[in-house]
Each structure stands twice: as C-alpha cells, then as structure tokens.
Design goal:
Number of helices: 2
Helix content: 10-25%
Largest sheet: 6 strands, mixed
Oligomer: single chain
Number of domains: 1
Strand order of the largest sheet: 3-2-1-6-5-4
Distance between the termini: 12 Å
Shape: globular
C-alpha cells in the first residue's frame, strides 16, 4: 500500500487505479448516488485506508477509504472526518469501516 502526503494526492492516485465513484456514509450503508446504489457492510470490501491530518489544524483529520464491490462491479472512494465530527452510523457499518 502506498503512502501519500496529502488527501488530494491519494484521491488522484486511487482514481487512476479505478476507484472512480464517490461514496457517502448513510446510517446503515455506504451509498453511491452516481449509480443509485446502496451497499450494506457485507456487500463491499475496504481495499485501502489512509488517514490525514492538516498541520495547520490538528483537529482537522480525515480518513480515506478505497472501497470495492465485486457483486455490484463498482470501485470508489469515501472520505470522512476522523474525529468527533464523523458521521453517525450503524454498529455494523462502524465495525466494517474500523477493520483496517
């Protein structure tokens, strides 16, 4: 797994590797509005995880997930806050996103 200096560097590189869709966290799933698709925790894999912290603001942390689903033939990225600002989710989704 590569190491990236910035979030934008990671996003650009992973997009070149085929992670072209955008995912968002919903309470029970991750969703891709581009494909009108909702993936439950057992329907996707987390291929890579990268954490970033801005030097100018130590409270501003983000986490990038590279996600794939062979069943739905989709690969994409999910960016989320990595702190108290992160999205509320179901325990199954939190467990899935915390495994890497």
């Amino acid at each position: 797994m590569e190491t990236y200096s910035t979030l934008s560097e990671a996003i650009n590189d992973l997009m070149q590797k085929g992670y072209t869709h955008n995912f968002n966290i919903n309470e029970e799933c991750v969703e891709c509005s581009e494909k009108d698709l909702q993936l439950k925790p057992d329907e996707f894999e987390i291929d890579e995880v990268h954490r970033f912290q801005e030097m100018s603001d130590i409270d501003n942390e983000s986490i990038l997930f590279a996600i794939s689903s062979t069943h739905h033939n989709v690969k994409g990225l999910l960016v989320n806050a990595y702190s108290i600002y992160s999205n509320p989710s179901s325990s199954a989704l939190i467990a899935k996103l915390s495994t890497k």
